[in-house]
Amino acid sequence: MTEPREQILRTLAEYQKLLEERPDDARMLLRVGDLQLRADDTVQALTFFCRAAEAFAKSGQHFKALAVGEHILHVIQDRAPEKAATITDIARLMATSYRALGRVDEAIKISVESAEALDRAGLTAEATELRRSAGELSGAEPHSG
After folding, report:
1. pTM of structure
2. Domain segments of the chain as ranges
3. Domain 1-59: assigned CATH number
């Protein structure tokens, strides 16, 4: 059974009050993003998911940042293709987390895959920038699309 929209909105209001006291609480930001998604507000959900990923990365919790980043990419693909430009920021955050974990190959891979998604969305300037970043990571010229 699905949760009534009114209950979701009440719960969101409670979390918003809590976030005023702890605006960088990654777990709370993630929960609010989940609730926004259940309330069919994908754009707001993505905003909170991005803040959660940033908070996890900032606190050194790179595996959690990467998991949230993957979730964001899936949400964009499945529910908000018009927010494809967000991919650039998430790919950079994920590449930074992969580098922090010593996984440069994964950092390059996420950059290249995200550039391909941006190309498909018609965002060639953003795609070129991600390819440039991937090239810098690999010490080679950027891959062409």
Report:
1. 0.88
2. 1-59, 84-145
3. 1.25.40
